[in-house]
Fold this sequence. Notes:
Layout: H1 3-60, H2 65-103, E1 108-113, H3 114-131, H4 135-165, E2 173-184, E3 187-197, H5 204-209, H6 211-214, H7 216-245, H8 250-277, E4 284-291, E5 300-304, H9 307-310, E6 320-322, H10 327-332, E7 333-337, H11 340-346, H12 349-361, E8 366-372, E9 375-381, H13 398-417
Antiparallel strand pairs: 1-2, 2-3, 3-4, 4-9, 5-7, 5-8, 6-7, 8-9
Amino acid sequence: MELGKYLELQRKLSEFYINRFQPKLKLHNEAKRKKDINLIILYSIIISIIVCVITSLFKLFPLQLFSFFTFIVGTAALIIKAGRTIELDIDTDLKIQLMDDFVKIFGDLHWYNLNISNKILEDKLYKLKKRSSNLANIAPEYLQITKSQQALYTNIWSDVNKIKELNIFNILGISFDDCIDGKYENVPFSIKEITVIPPVAADLGCLIFCIPVISFFGIIIALILLVAGVQILSLYYAVIGTIVKLGASKITATLIAATIFVVSIKFIINIITKLYRHRSTGFRGVMIEFDMNKNFEGHTFILDNTKDGKAINVNKSEYSEVKLEDIEFEKDYTVWSNNQIEARYLLTTTFIERLKNLKTSFKAQYTRVSFKNNKIVIAIHTGRDMFEMVKAFSKTGKETFIELFKEIASVLDIIEQLKLNKKIGL
C-alpha cells in the first residue's frame, strides 16, 4: 500500500476512534467491570457451596476422590462458560454497532457475521413467541423471521458447497465468523474468517463406537469414560443422600444431583473430544476471494505439503500434478490442475514469489490457493481469531483497535501485492 494512501487511512482511523469508538468503549469497559464484580460474587458463593458439600461428602465417602474432582471441575466449567457468555454478549453488541461503519474507512465495504445474524434472528423469534402463545396473532412477524432464517441458512449452505468445490480443504464442517464484502481498488472481493473441521475430528459418537475397534487411543478413551461414568454415578447417589440429610426434599436433592451429573459428564466429553480433535488440526484463518485480471476455464489449486495438506483427497483421474521450475516452492507446495498449460499461464515466477511473501507477512502456518471460475481464492491459516474489535476476556484499548486496522489493511494489500488491480500478468 502506498505511503500516502496508508497515512490517509490512518487519519480516518484516528477520527473514527475519537468520535465513534472511544465514547462507546468507556461504556463497554464499565459494563464489563460490573459483570466482573457480579461474577466474583457468584464464584465466591459457588466455591463456598462446593467446600461445604465436599466436606460433608468426604466424611461419608472418603474413597470417591475422582468423583469429587469431576464435580468441582465440572461446576467451575459451567460457571466460567456462563461468565464468558455474558462477556461475549457485551462484545458482540459493540461490534454490531460499529464494525460495519469501521470497515467503510477502507472504501465501499460491508461487514457481517453469520453467527451473530443467526443469533439475532433466534432472539427475535424467542421474544415473539414469549409475547404471544397464539401463533395467529404473530403470524406475519413469525413468517418474516423464519424466511430470514431460511435465507441465511441457504446462503451458508451455498458458501459451504462453493468452498468444498475449491479442493483445498478436507471438510466435515465449517464455522463462519467475520465476513467482509466489497470493492477495493475497483477489485470485487470477499473475506471470510472460517474454521474448518476435518473429517478425522468426527463427533464423539464416532469416536466412541468406531475408533476403539481400530485404535489403542480409542480403547483408552472408552475405558476412561467407563470409569468416569461409574464414579460420577456413585457421586450422584452420594449427593442425593447428603442433601436429604441436610434437610432438603428428595425431589430437590435429585434435581441438584442430576444437574451435577449432567455437567460433569458433559465436561469430560468436551475435554476428550477437544484432545482428540487436537490430533488433526483443521484450518483456522481467513479465506479471501478476488476477481481475477485473467480469464481461464480450468481449475488449478495449490496445496501446502504439511500433514494436513497431504491428507486432502485429490481426484487424480481429473487432476494431475503440475511440475514447476522453482525447487524451493515445490518443497513447500504441490500444484494440481485439470489444465497444465493454463496452470503455467497462471503461476508465473512473479506470482510464486508474491505468494511466498504473503505467507511471511501474515506469519501464516500455511497458505492455499485455488483458481476457479475466473476468481482466485487464497486461504491463509493464521491459527487465531482475527478482526477482534474488542478483547473478549481482557481490557480493550487503542492497541486492540490499531491491530484490527492493520489486519484488514494487510488483507486488502494482497490486491496490490498480486497486482490484481492492473490488467497485466500475475
